[in-house]
Amino acid sequence: MVPVFQYRYYKAIAATLAKARETIGSVSVANPLISYTVDEIADMFASDNPRFDRAWFLAAANGKPSNGRDKVQS
Predict the structure, then answer these.
(1) Quick one: how far is CA 11 from the chain centroid?
(2) 67 domain-assigned
(3) Tens digits of per-residue pLDDT, 5-63?
(4) Is there a domain that residue 73 lies in?
């Protein structure tokens, strides 16, 4: 059995990726690289954990705010 991350780890990784995107800003070469990295990480997590919420992770990694219950606001 492959160990599965706890939700708090997914949340911390998403926050780190969002901060990296914010820090780099609109650097034309960096943004596609971050987007690719976020997608690859989401794919890896989804393949390891059938309950992984890929949509939430992508939104959180792109800096979408949480509603306080860790659901991403639309």
Answers:
(1) 7
(2) no
(3) 888 899 999 999 988 888 876 555 667 888 888 999 999 999 989 889 998 999 898 88
(4) no
